[in-house]
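SAMPLE LOG
Freezer: B-3
Tube label: C17
Construct: single chain, 583 aa
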Amino acid sequence: MNIRNLIGTLALTLNVCLAQAQQKTFTIAVLPDTQMYTEEEGERNRTLFESQTRWIVDNYRKENIVYVVHVGDIVNRGDDRPEQWKNAFRALSILEQPLPGKPEGIPYGLAVGNHEQTPSQWAVTGKTEWFNHYFGVGHFERRSYYGGHYGNDNDSHYDLFSAGGMDFIAIYIEYDAMDENIDALNDWAVNLCKQYPSRKAIIVSHGIIHYNPVEGTNANAPWLKQGERIYDRLKTCPNVFMMLCGHVGDNGEGYREDGYAGRTIKTFLSDYQSRPLGGGSLMRLMTFDPENDLIKVRTIAPYLDTEETDADSKFVKPWKYETTAARIYDFDNDGKSEFALFKGGIWQIGTEKQNRLLGYGKAVAVPADYHADGKAALAVYRPQTSEFCIEGKGVIQWGQAGDIPVPADYNGDGLIELATWRPADQTWHIQGQKPFRHGTKKSIPVPADYDGDSRVEPAVYRTDNHTFYISEIANLPLGQAGDIPVPADYNGDGKIEIAVYRPVSGEWIIGRQDTVVLGGTPGDIPVPGAYEEAGKVRPAVYNMQTGLLRLESGKKLQMGKGTVEQVVNLSFPIRQYILDSRK
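STRUCTURE (predicted):
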């Protein structure tokens, strides 16, 4: 083979590898309520609707769009205005045009909202004749991705599709504000999840949550009635991970997350009907990045060629692994932990030094997911002045001199609450809660999500009787004198296991059953993390004299020399305990 052919072959191989890598990331497009575009009033017309579907078709390769969800209220007048259904069909049929590699076009599904139901817009007894005329079982049943339907029509149905090496099921539940058929619909959805246990389940229904209580944030939005009923019934299905909805257009955007049995279900609302031009063609792109365990949300308006970039329109969320469990000390959003040191105001993350948050040399490092994007943000706490300084948020006063910082997500809304534990009277001071007492003078605060509900429980480890006292859960003895508490999610199940590290032997005792021996040398300190596999924390030790980080696999990484005070990969209370025990 001559050099020219060799270069050509290498280039082709590289392009194939790049294409395969890109395909791991895929996008689901979400069409919000389009009811105003079908009205044909003034500047509000089907052109806006068609601009959305045309953009999807024109960009399906670039964005790797694998599926399209419509959250309902396709039209505004239900069966009263057949011409609105013609407008909707013109726009949506664009998705059905054969494309290279997609002979059926781009797979899509439609939720039935209240505006599809006639004459009542609030009950499943309303007729949906025109919806089923254009988008009924007969229209979809020959399509390979169509799974089936509930009852005699297509008002509730499901689709099957695959992307990123994973299989999915999208289940559409008809709008049912009056609870006329809610139990039967929920039972049908649960049975589908059981029928397809290996498929990750997306639940789509028109009305699930309200908009965010504080515009421009991603604080937990309140439930709508049907939405709460759906969640309460389907949260027990292990494969349900996401819910999508519209319906509430005053603000237009909402988000909440709820934990159950070590899993988190994320719910996203998008509805822009109250905006100028009936929504101005605003729509969502949800890009899934399995390798880095992220969901990236963008909000674009194809007709206006604009993008919204405020905090509740463009944001990133962890996908499977939450920062309350296995996603810890991840500073670059790759799903894995990075070893870090904080030396006199200088951060060293891995082997890279960063001059950020200068002027806080005497503070202690307290990184956490303060921006709710799955990434540990740089932050410090000044015990003398009781101040948190968080990159991107500034300085916030909390607690009093001498308090121990214990910031965490205590209410399960995905946002970090500032918090301190006061050794003088063993009281917890958590944003949004009244102070309460938990612990003793011989205690180390070890808050964590021990039951997997996405809420961090206040907890302490008593060094006098070697017991974890977890608020409202249990008192669990583990360890012996000299052990260091190191609770973490060691098996990736979304729940924190109690654990201790025994310096005299190098043993890790995890959950009172599993024992791991790393050996090591005197002076090693425990620094558990997901250093090698996203979503799975494993034992690791750091030697301050040599600067070596030694992983359970036997791999050794040179991280540079540091002191106990400078090590970031242990909470401040545990670092302080190690220092005190060596005096």
